[in-house]
Amino acid sequence: MLVDDLCLSVIPPNAGDSGLFVREAYLSGSWEAWRFPLLVAAGLIGMVLKFFMMRVFYRQILSQYRKTRAVVLAGGVIILSTATALHLFIGSLADWTATLSPLLGREETTLLIQTQFDRLMPAMILSYAGLALLFLGSAFAVITKKTVLPRRMLALHILVFQLIFVLIPDIRQALGAEISTWDYVLSQGSTNAAMGIWMLANAIWAGRRRKQEK
Hints:
- The chain is mainly alpha-helical.
- Helices cover 76% and strands 0% of the residues.
- The chain has helices spanning 2-9, 24-27, 35-59, 66-104, 106-143, 158-174, 181-188, 190-213.
């Protein structure tokens, strides 16, 4: 799914860019046509892989804590059911912006895309609800020692790195730095990048634990 974020965010920055779609790279029609098919394919593959990630979230919680497991399971099911639709929705709007802007003009395209975004985004909130259940439930389980993981692993949790990635562009802008492609990448890819770091940390911890047990 991080590939999806990169398809949308690895674009030349522009001082007039704002939001998800009012970006010069989209409005100029220079957003390459191959990006959207890649986004769709990577998103579908990503959801298959996320099934195994959700299973890790669920199984690392000790079996006696059934309510915590239920919360994490509910969040995982919601994400698996909705995340592809969310990525497809956002990717399609970027693609339509790049396609329609040379035909309809910038202002009319911006208005059309923004109207579509405002119309459908409320329905996509369900996906974010799933993320909240999964991330908060997982963090709560680690803090309260309801998982097989040591409490110090919280320092590498998704919530920690997501907050770091989201804040870096804001801090840079507050310090007067010029907007860069990295700002787009960090803000748009924060969730999936943080998930990747958390899964890597889990894999390293599990590997070391297995060696110690031998």
